[in-house]
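Worked Example 4.2. Read the sequence first, then its structure tokens.
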Amino acid sequence: MTAEQTKQYTEQMAVITAVLLLTAVVVIKCTSGMCYVEVSCLVINLEHMDCTWKQDCRLQLNYTFQSRLGSRPPFRDCPQYLREGGYNVGCRLPYKINDKFSSLHTRLSGDNNVTKEQTIQMKERVKLKPPLNLSVVVNSTNLELWLYWNTSTKSTCTESEVRYRKQDDQWHSAIIQMSATSHSIPFIFQNHQYELQVRTRVSHFCGESMFWSDWSAPIFYHVPGKRNATGKRS
């Protein structure tokens, strides 16, 4: 091998070694708990708090979670982990009335104790369960449809949104005032089927949430047609 060939070989090996070292550093960072991970928390139906996290690494890490509410020391270990595929992917925390008005401080630790801390404002992060027990009453005299429902929490602190459509038409929606659990739809069409749903959230009077509940299960109602001279509906 000539001196020139030896020089080229040495330079090539140096490049390969540098690439391998860089790859090793990236893998070490990932396996040592330094993956990017973000914690997201929700108050579920004013019953408990669920904090979940996702990571951007291909390699799975088992995180440990601690939290404290407001200025209450110290950090406490997670009382109930949410698991998926054998890994911790979240934590369920107890909830007491008005806890949502305090900041939630979270601490997430990787396998090598690399720690990520966050402060989350919980007031706007309340998600209620969908309304239930939907029912319909129709006034055949003035063709007005009334929709009724129940909420899963105190109705005095919620506002609702109703959406409805006839057949496969476009949805129409309306925001319902606080504490109301009914809504009227005037001038409905006879001999048509209506589909109706409701969702709800904490109103601004009780610290408005940015999260609506999921839509309720739909209720379907077919408005009968007029009776003709023979007594049959058209």
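Now turn to a second chain, presented in exactly the same format:
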Amino acid sequence: MQVSLQEIQDIQNFVDTLNQQTQSVVVVEGKRDELALKKIGFSGKIIQFHKFGGITRFSDHIANYDTVIMLLDGDRKGKYLTGRIIYQIQRRTRIDLSYKKKLVEITKGKIRFIEQLVCYESYLV
């Protein structure tokens, strides 16, 4: 995959900005997504959706956080889960989708799955 210098800088800025959100929690689908974020330098709190065994349990747990940053995959399943989670917790906590939009913008749609972020690891660390 071709990676431009600007794209690498934008990804680094993205991770730095995400790391500054200390009062927030980042939501990903599974362990590979969490591992990919850590490999590119994210050091904040990550919660895996699939560890909870359902949207209701997950929603009850996640509602305890001030801000929830949604970084679910851009596939059909990820979009469905994002919609369902938003519906469940929208009145209980603040939901931030701007990071997902920013990631799509930076990668120009090349990254549909969060676990694909590992391709930037060699450029960032």
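Notes for the reader: The chain is about 50% helix and 10% strand. Residues 5-19 form the longest helix (15 residues).
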